[in-house]
Amino acid sequence: MRDCHAIFRPMEDQDRPAVLALSRAWAEEDITYGYFANGENELDNYRCWVAEVDGRVAGYAAGQMETASRDSSIQRAGERWFELEELYVVRACRGGGLGGALLGHVEETLRGEGVKRLMLTGANRDQGPLLRFYLRRGMTLYSFRAFRDL
Q1: pTM of the entire predicted model
Q2: What is the DSSP string of 47-103?
Q3: Residue 77 sits in which domain range?
């Protein structure tokens, strides 16, 4: 594992090509069910942060604010939350805390803006490490969906 000390910041226009390249790398890894690389215009719909290591974008997190349309077991109609839709770190920087630090930066930023909840859905082919990653960082699992081809 390479030592990956990062600077975390909002994505800027000049970061778009690097974030799109990381999105393509993610799709090529084929580690997530149904993940397709972002197109140029899709980034316009997201709020995005980058992790910069040695002057290069080595990871990103992206999502958007959502509003509950009806009451559920964890929120009421009209409540807002941030839906984290993507968090990706280059292979060379995995396992050393970069992803967790990036997630922490996103949470700290949102908390500072008064956002009360972060939610996400994961669709990795190997759910164990994904679940451990998020549960170790204080996420609460409140539902899941499974499938089996027949």
Answers
A1: 0.89
A2: EEEEEEETTEEEEEEEEEEEE-SS--SS--TT-EEEEEEEEEE-GGGTTTTHHHHHH
A3: 7-136
